[in-house]
Amino acid sequence: MDQTEPPQRRAKSPSQSRKEAVDSVVYRLSELMFGSLLAAYVLGFIGFAAAGPTRTTAFQGNLSAFYPEGLTYLCISTTFAYLTSALYISYHVSILTMPHLPLSRLRWDFLVALLQAVLFGLSMLSPVWFPFCTGCVLLAGITRQFWEHRALADWFCRDVFSSNPASPITAARENQRQRQELRRFRRSFAAELKQIDDLSIWQSVPKSTVGAVVLLIGGGLFVYLRRRWSVEPKIEALMGQITAWVALVVFLFFLFRVNSLLKERAGFLYSGEAIESLDREFNRFYDLLAQRANDRVRKN
Fold first, then answer.
1. Helix (H, G, I), strand (E, B), or coil: what is residue 67?
2. pTM listed for this prediction
3. Which of the four pLDDT bands, split at 50, 70 and 90, describes residue 271?
């Protein structure tokens, strides 16, 4: 048999992968959780704002009585709504279209959604933890994308090389050479994805990692300072206003970041042309990697 022949593709297309995932029970649980979260954010804001100490004055028409507690709760609810929308879009556009994804791993998306609910409740009960909690949710979504991106690269490597018995991947599956080949392939795979617009949805998101780290460190520092300074009665009222302004800054950060994401990717969910273009680019990408594998075999 001629080893230079391109391997026969056994992979599912992104559209097939998404259809199978959407038909799964775990996906439906995640959908219910996402929808429930958006409703909970609205009800949470109304409930906490209405239970505030200044609710009587506010009900008489003086909306300034909601400051700073009402502003804080409003920023928390809307920020989590935007963050949930971003994770939902990324979940549909990126995770569900990956051809390697086993349905059993969709449970992690349900856990991320559940984590959002828990941390939203903590943020409403103690707003000083709000920046830290949003950092945790953002980091969870980034980690989910990173590990799935890495698993996708490994799957491509195995699927392409395993069709050729002379390749180093199948010649020695557990030796040092194989691990080196796999690391090299992951780097080239990530670089290739960045060059293809349609497939760039599968890449990891290092830029968002910086934002998550800033929120975690800044949020942790804010909690520390808030707890330390709260012993001073004169500073307590000022800290309430600072908490509201910190919440507003976090909200504006997610507002601009998520709006750009929604503008870029939201149409993918309802456009048949978009998923067809993704299938075509996937086929070209797979054939390109297969050809490179054969070229490497011929050189060896």
1. coil
2. 0.77
3. low
CB 7 within 8 A of CB 290: yes
Say how far apart CA 184 and CA 127 lie, in whole Å. 45
Tell me how far the alpha carbon of residue 167 is from its chain's centroid: 34
Q: Which long-range contacts (CB under 8 A, 24 or more apart) does 110-116 make?
A: 110/26, 110/29, 110/30, 110/33, 112/87, 112/137, 112/140, 112/141, 112/144, 113/30, 113/33, 113/34, 113/37, 113/84, 113/87, 114/33, 115/140, 116/37, 116/80, 116/83, 116/84, 116/87
> Distance (Å, rounded) from C-alpha 50 to C-alpha 95?
39
Q: Are 247 and 80 in contact (CB under 8 A)?
A: no
Task: Provide the mean pLDDT of the chain.
Answer: 75
Q: 102: which residues sit within 8 A by CB, 6+ positions away?
A: none
Identify whether the C-beta of residue 9 lies closer than 8 Å to the C-beta of residue 288.
Answer: no
pLDDT at site 85: 83
Reported as a single tens digit per residue, the pLDDT across 51-108 is 655 555 555 555 555 667 778 888 898 899 888 888 888 777 778 788 887 777 778 8
Nearest to 82 by CA among 292, 259, 240: 259
Using DSSP's 3-state secondary structure scheme, residue 8 falls into coil
∠ CA 151-152-157 to the nearest 5 degrees? 95
Confidence of residue 136 (pLDDT cuts 50, 70, 90): very high
CA–CA dist 202, 206 (Å, integer): 12
